[in-house]
Specification:
By secondary structure, this protein is of the alpha+beta class. Helices cover 20% and strands 44% of the residues. The strands form four sheets. The chain has a six-stranded antiparallel beta barrel with strand order 3-10-13-12-11-14. The longest helix has 29 residues. The two termini are 57 Å apart. The N terminus and C terminus are likely disordered.
């Protein structure tokens, strides 16, 4: 053989050997890091929040019932009055004189009636004269009783225990029946008045518990009880009135403050509840992903069609498609298809999509 061919043949042989010994590249496999949750049944609750107003259970503007000059406020503005205490006094001089005059007239009418009774018993005088004397006595007695009521009403008394919140008439001012004199408030016994939309009429009932807080201050959050539910809907606001009683408040709470009220309008015990963000639309269906395994025993995503029911905020009741014990895929589920291989990571780790070869996937 010509020596010139030897190097060429050797080079070809060496190249062929190198091609045979080079390993083929490994196939890259797509895997997705996900977090999961093992489903259990739990209570689903939905709530309605409404804004109401703090009111006193006893809050009254007290008016004069007789005419006269206002003499005094025995209890000053801001002072406490027990039920029955005199909170305002009206001059009673004129009424007192009238009572004395009518007392004398009644006494005269009584004596006249007694005299006519004696005469009639002795067959003197007529029955008509006796009846007239009796009716005259009764008439004068009724007039005296009415005047005595007016005299009593010159002392305005507290109808309930509370504080004198406001006065409307100055001392020495002439007041007449119906004129506002003062406002009395029992601030130890508060309630919240709130309007509830008519569509929730079947979800709110007397005796139900609610949560409430005042002026957006969470430190005032406390439980209240529905005491009254109105039977009529306001035609302008389409709401019905609800009154809520709550525990004796601190001095920080004032009448007419804004109160936020949270009503529980639905309770479904034993429900499968998931976050709405982990449910997806696929054609006409709603789907979710759970953990399954492939033939090699590796965790993969399995797409399941679900039906949903009630929703509150981002919590959804799943009525079919998921069951207790399913390993539900949460974060990372938006990257999945049916059969996608998975790397399950702790909840605190953000999920990422990784392309890796079989030997290093998930590392």
């Amino acid at each position: 053989m010509n020596r010139l061919w030897i190097p060429f043949v050797f080079a070809l042989t060496l190249g062929a050997c190198s091609a045979e010994t080079e390993a083929p590249p490994q196939e890259l496999v797509r895997r997705v890091n996900v977090t999961t949750e093992t489903l259990e049944t739990r209570d689903f609750r939905s709530y309605l929040q409404r804004v109401g107003t703090v009111k006193a259970a006893n809050d009254a503007v007290i008016s004069a019932e007789v005419s006269g000059r206002l003499l005094a406020y025995p209890i000053p503005k801001g002072g406490f009055a027990a039920e029955g205490d005199v909170v305002a006094g009206i001059d009673d001089a004129k009424l007192s004189r009238e009572v004395e005059r009518l007392t004398a007239i009644v006494q005269l009418a009584r004596e006249n009636y007694e005299r006519q009774s004696t005469l009639f018993e002795n067959n003197i005088g007529s029955e008509t004269e006796l009846l007239n004397a009796r009716y005259q006595l009764e008439q004068q007695q009724a007039a005296l009783a009415s005047l005595q009521v007016d005299l009593t009403n010159t002392r305005i008394r507290a109808p309930f225990s509370g504080r004198v919140e406001q006065t409307f008439a100055e001392m020495g001012e002439l007041v007449s029946p119906g004129a506002r004199v003062l406002r009395l408030v029992d601030s130890s016994n508060l309630k919240v008045e709130v309007g509830v939309p008519a569509r929730y009429s079947g979800a709110v009932a007397a005796g139900d518990s609610v949560m409430l807080w005042v002026n957006r201050d969470e430190s005032t959050r406390q439980q209240g009880v529905i005491e009254f539910v109105g039977s009529a809907v306001d035609p302008s606001s389409r709401t019905f009135p609800v009154e809520i009683r709550f525990a004796a408040p601190s001095d920080r709470l004032k009448i007419d403050m804004v109160a936020e009220v949270e009503f529980e309008i639905l309770h479904l015990p034993g429900s499968i509840v998931v976050d709405e963000e982990f449910l997806f639309t696929s054609g006409d269906d709603m789907v979710a992903y759970v953990v399954d395994s492939n033939d090699a025993g590796e965790p993969v995503a399995r797409e399941v069609v679900v039906e949903t029911g009630e929703i509150y905020r981002n919590q959804v009741v799943v009525t079919s498609g998921l069951k207790p014990g399913d390993v539900f895929i949460r974060q990372g589920s938006s990257y999945l298809n049916d059969g996608t291989r998975l790397v399950i990571v702790p909840l605190e780790v953000d999920p990422v999509v990784a392309d890796a070869n079989p030997a290093t996937a998930g590392l």
